[in-house]
Design goal:
By secondary structure, the protein is an alpha+beta fold. The protein is built from 8 helices and 5 strands, in the order αααββααααββαβ. The chain is globular, with a radius of gyration of 20 Å.
Length: about 200
Amino acid sequence: MSISAKEIKDLRDKTGAGFMDCKKALEDSNGDFEKAFDFLRKKGLATAAKRSGREASEGVVELYSHGDGRVGVMVEVNCETDFVARSAKFREFAHEIALQIAALSPQYVTVDEIPEKVLEKELEIARARALEEGKPENILDRITEGRLEKFKDEVVLLRQAYIRDDKLSIEEYLHGNIASIGENIVIRRFARWELGEQSN
């Protein structure tokens, strides 16, 4: 079957994968956009996993100011080489991450960064809420765990849904960029300030 240039371009725009990869994914899935998209996402995750051990000490500190200076974000995104750090694609990725942080106010980059005390407190709150709602004792643990996972989805940057495409998590968006740029990329750290908020 023949795949149009527009279909390939649409898939490239959505996944960040190379032209030939998109063409092949569409051909292999008989033009089914969703199947091709899922295939490329899985491929991106596999490629990212291979590169994740590589040293990433170059990069950029992206600064973003939103809402007439009401919200400010600073995020450090690292890559392996200075050449990639200066590329438009890498800079665009860093900017998108800054936008994500401004919009959805994550508190941590990864789940591992959440202090044990915070997780214990959230479990306690989730359990108390479930009891108050009269949930049966035999499913309390499942409900509590489910609510804890939802909390992680909200506060952990890599687990948040990407603001431009809620079918993608930020982790999947990161892996797609690792696959298309061809280097390990690490979102190292960030800070977010909002006018008038109290510092911890």
